[in-house]
Amino acid sequence: MDEIKQIFRDRQFKKLFVGDTDNTLIQFFRYLFVGGLATVVDWGLSFILFKFVFGERFAVAANSLSFIAGLVVNYLISTLWVFKNSKVSNKLVEFIGFAAIGVVGLLITVLITWCFRLWLEDRTSAYQMIAKVVSTAVAFLWNFFARKILLYTKKENKK
Question: Cα separation of 141 and 99, whole Å?
Answer without folding.
Answer: 15
